[in-house]
Amino acid sequence: MTKNELVVLGLLKEMPMHGYQLYHEIEKRNMEAWAQVNLASVYNTLDRLRRAKMVEAKKEKPGKMPEREVFHITRKGKQKLATLVEEAITDDRMPENNFCVGVAFLSGLSKRKALECLELKKKRLRKVAEHLENLKNDSSRRQSLNWKFLLRYGIEHVQLDIKKIEELKRKISKLESWS
Q1: In this structure, are 114 and 80 located in the same domain?
Q2: Is 83 in the same domain as 147?
Q3: Are residues 65 and 130 both part of a single domain?
Q4: In this structure, are residues 162 and 122 in contact, taking their beta carbons and an 8 Å threshold?
């Protein structure tokens, strides 16, 4: 499964879009942070999906704007999307997490630097939680059940991460020796 294909096909199922519009939607939903899909990967994925006949493009020339290709999902693309969604939801592998790998080898830093890094991570997570709260509380956005769930899930996940980092910092601070 490729996460980029899942994101692009999922967004195109909602409505036809051109490449930059897809990326703008990814940014608007803050998916760059948690899905890690960038602009270049959107275009590469569109190209791959077009070759596989999962998306088709129609040329459009809106007003005085340059001509652009607007992509829409095909029946084959909808079938692939269903497969990718099922795989993503039922995947039993642990998600990749650089933070966990870093914590596993935290003793590679001095005690002071480890505490500084954990504090910085906590501050960044607080910003993420604040952003997600703002998205959740934005009454101008019509949000489907699954997107409401994702926002609540994200907020709760980040809050738990912050709590666990605070706990780890307290335990490290109490240590007499650090190796």
Answers
A1: no
A2: no
A3: no
A4: yes
Coil, strand or helix at 74: coil
Ordered DSSP codes for 29-40: TTHHHHH---HH
Separation of alpha carbons 126 and 56, rounded Å: 41
Convert the pLDDT of each residue in 64-112 to its tens digit.
878 889 999 999 999 999 999 999 888 888 777 788 889 988 988 999 9
- Evaluate whether residue 160 is within a structural domain: yes
26-71: per-residue pLDDT in tens?
Answer: 888 878 777 888 888 999 999 999 999 999 999 987 778 788 899 9
What does the CA dihedral 159, 91, 136, 144 come to, rounded to 10 degrees? -160
Hey, is 24 helix, strand or coil? helix
The reply to whether 53 and 113 lie within a common domain is no
